[in-house]
Write a structure and sequence with these properties.
Two copies of one chain form a homodimer. Chain A is α+β, with helices and mostly antiparallel strands. The first copy, chain A, folds into two domains: about 140 residues, Jelly Rolls (Sandwich); about 350 residues, Alpha/alpha barrel (Glycosyltransferase). Helices cover about 40% and strands about 15% of the residues of chain A. In chain A, helix 4 runs parallel beside helix 16 and helix 7 packs antiparallel against helix 9. Chain A is elongated. The two termini of chain A are about 20 Å apart. At the A-B interface, strand 6 of A face strand 6 of B.
Chain lengths: ~525, ~525
């Protein structure tokens, strides 16, 4: 996730008590040593065939000026690289000048940083230029990288010697504990693979906090957190990490109490001056889901008021006649698809959240609040139907625009009776063409809507198709953005900057473990 | 100094006892904190005027993508840089990606690394690309740099913030102890300035060993060491550092006993597989001069045989009729001027060294050796006169070529009687045109020859002209190569790679303190 929002003079409202509690919940990080599975040399021009020229004796290869060696570590890893470097020829009489390019996917290896002209900072591109003054040397780079491939290019050695890469290893880092994970309940090989890749995605994003992506942004986003938490509950079960992240969001908010879309934790905790309408609401949803898992009274006591506040703030953006204000609609996200009218879907996200808020109020024995929330729910469902349902088209219309996003969120908000919701979602393909979904994040909510409408087979089929096509394209972890019809697309003006291990894409593991392997479901995190 | 010599299967002969003694003599390094004297911003295109736009409030400047800030630390320094970095705007949502360019001279700041196509490794160019993940941050770079200017370019920040350089400082490093230095004995402002710059040059090269240049090569070269030692004796008087360097050269030699032209000390001591004919001989010269200063019996006992061996090896390259073999002539250096025939000068360098070797033998009471050396001296002086003196041209001719290098070394070798040497050196301008000297190293020997020929005024005049023109061109330390008529020339195919603080250029301090401020001279290190 990456958005540009700048609020002049922004100072978040911090709560020392909540932040101290979050600090106490810092997770233990686990490490593992991973060595390359093979190596190859890449020619100037991209060629997929080169991938087959595997060098089995990488440590015998002498690299002169301009030569490269690509190491393949087998799958996606997050951690620190150590290289044992030596030389052949005379004693090195000049430093070795190396370019190191870390790539999550094979394609990235051949992409050129200078070609990127998008709106995100190029500083996220994982490449370094380093001088090694003395050889032989063992060097460990101080920064953490997310990668499967490492391309080492010798920018220069000297005429007297060539570089030899004797050994390389990654010290991986994650707060996910694989020993806590039960075997995949499915016997279907595709679902097993999908589950494995989903869990690796989550594990590689589970660091000191739940990061959105270990390559880019590397920080807490509320929309990602909610989906990470769901998947975490059926796998690594690190409840304290979810709690820590909720306390962090609660501990640094907008001055008016809103939960920020995203949070920085270094060098100190500070809410970003970015507001995403439905992300603030997901705090309430995520807290309720956390309570379902843990019955954690401390968290309920500390965070309940803040959860209720998010709903109350959101309701201020609803007009007297039950529409969402333009300001709020513009601040909603849902997906990177451009041109989508988000007014109706934004209203639906409030209704959706009211359901979770009411459960929280009941759990807190706050009956007057629960009743008030029920009233709001009824009122907004009615308004949503009245304002956005088009009798002729038999679907929801947002400011004259028909899009799938609106239908999905209206179904998730229970605005339609079950049979009508089912009929609507059976026609989902009709709505998807003009404004296609481009993020696994939105695809997750699409599948949720199918499941909520009782279309379990269709949901499973879509998951197999969508995440399956990512697997077919070579994903070791699930990607931030993916449109099977436009494999090279990027919301950021260049795929080199895309994150190929992205938290909001890990949900197949949740869906497989919660929905597609059991007969009965006790939860409904849809 | 930099040369490309590669000997397949080269293994130096190491002497553990000598190397252990060298290790014991490791100097203490002294440090000082230096802050910038001002700052400026450089436009894309080189402009010397920009230098005048001095920013007095550097720490208020916000640097966006592509902006630069140049810091001027007032003079040439060698050491480690620390930067205090902060930001203006929103909390940084992406790393800062910076290019740091360290420049010894103002001109280097505007030179482009990509334009260099010479034969030396570009890895010597002092520039780094670094990612700063968290701001504010204090960062200290691990490598040592030689520089007066630091150009910080923000390759990228993000749209949310700009970079601020709040503070910068250098922790300088040298083994030279300034408290040991007597005031400059001259009252002439130009000589005082020249002495100051010469001493700074020596100090900035005086590190763990006497380096040739702290920017490039950064290691012991025998030709540089001899001149550094001479200047050191009249300034910092670090006799142990000279001793350490002599032991290092003696401790790792060619398998046949030859002193290597240069030595690596990291990760372990190893002679380079480079032989320069007169450099090997300078070991003998430098030991004799060290003994004059110290009467160090241990050094004499440990190194005498090796010093004698250098002379004996050199004599093997003299033909029966008293000429220098082509192999040896080709291995002589003298200067970076191209096309110079070095046969006669090479022979002269043996004769010159025989004088020092004989003194060593007498000091060692090795009378038979002293007598033998005297015989060789007489024999070779006669042969040199016979083989290379041209009666018609009234100068020395080497394989049909008249050059200044030959005249200088023949005079230094006392091949002519004093009056004839004087006459020859009075005509020195005649010989200089076709093959101009381009290094201060050779200019030093030219001045030495003038002094040896009794032309003290002419010598002083030349020193004032040559090193003075470097001062006029802005030198804070004396440069590796300098031809006032071709200020941009480089022996390496591009001035960006030149060293602008080079040991062999520091000798004005020696000359001023030994020759141009006193009436009488007790030494004759010419």
């Amino acid at each position: 996730m990456a958005l540009i929002s700048i609020i002049d003079g922004f100072h978040p409202m911090n709560n020392a008590k909540l932040l101290d509690r979050a600090a106490e919940l810092k997770p233990t990080l686990h490490h593992r040593i991973v060595e390359p599975k093979g190596g190859f040399q890449l020619k100037e021009r991209y060629s997929s065939e080169i991938k087959d020229i595997v060098l089995h004796r990488v440590h015998h290869l002498a690299l002169g000026k301009g030569d490269n060696l690509c190491l393949d570590f087998g799958t996606h890893n997050v951690g620190y690289i150590t290289l044992d470097l030596s030389y052949s020829g005379s004693h090195p009489d000049a430093p070795a000048y190396l370019k190191l390019k870390f790539a999550e996917t094979f394609k990235e290896l051949s992409e050129n940083s200078d070609d990127y002209g998008g709106w995100i900072s190029t500083s996220w591109i994982q490449e370094e230029f380093i001088h090694v003054d003395v050889l032989p040397a063992q060097i460990t780079l101080p920064r953490r990288y997310a990668f499967r491939y490492l391309k080492i290019t010798t920018m220069d050695t000297s005429q007297k010697y060539k570089l030899i890469v004797k050994h390389a290893e990654i010290r991986t880092e994650t707060s996910a504990d694989w020993s806590k994970v039960n075997p995949c309940p499915s016997t279907d090989p595709l679902l097993q693979k999908m589950d494995e890749v989903g869990l690796r995605t989550l594990a590689n994003c589970a660091q000191d906090v739940f990061e959105d992506g270990p390559k880019r942004d590397q920080r807490l986003w509320m929309g990602d957190l909610r989906l990470q938490a769901l998947t975490n509950y059926v796998s690594f079960r690190n409840y304290d990490l979810v709690k820590r992240c909720l306390y962090l969001f609660a501990g640094s908010r907008f001055p008016d109490g809103r939960i920020s879309a995203c949070l920085f934790t270094k060098p100190y905790v500070e809410a970003d001056d970015t507001w995403l309408f439905e992300y603030s609401l997901f705090f309430t949803v995520a807290l309720e889901e956390y309570m379902q898992q843990t019955d954690d009274e401390e968290a309920l006591n500390d965070l309940y008021d803040i959860a209720m506040q998010q709903v109350e703030i959101a309701l201020r953006f609803v007009t007297r006649d039950g529409r969402l204000s333009k300001e709020a609609a513009d601040a909603a996200f849902f997906d990177w698809c451009e041109g989508v009218d988000k007014e109706a879907a934004g209203l639906a996200s409030i209704i959706y959240t009211l359901r979770y808020a009411r459960r929280l109020a009941r759990r807190k024995n706050d009956w007057s609040q629960a009743n008030w929330l029920m009233e709001q729910l009824d009122k907004l469902r009615e308004a949503a139907k009245k304002n956005y349902w088009d009798e002729e088209k038999q679907c929801f219309v947002s400011n004259g625009q028909v899009n799938l996003f609106t239908q999905v969120w209206m179904v998730l908000a229970d605005v339609l009776p079950p049979e009508e919701a089912k009929k609507l979602m059976e026609r989902s393909d009709e709505f998807a063409h003009l404004y296609p979904m481009v993020t696994p994040y939105m695809h997750h909510y699409y599948i949720s809507a199918l499941l909520r409408a009782g279309l379990k087979e269709k949901a499973l089929e879509h998951m197999r198709f969508y995440w399956g096509s990512m697997l077919d394209a070579g994903a070791d972890t699930f990607w931030e953005a993916w449109n099977p019809e436009q494999p090279d697309a990027s919301p950021y003006g260049g795929s080199i900057i895309n994150s190929y291990c992205h938290a909001w894409s890990c949900t197949p593991s949740y869906l497989i473990r919660s929905w597609f392997s059991r007969e009965k479901h006790t939860d409904d995190h849809l």
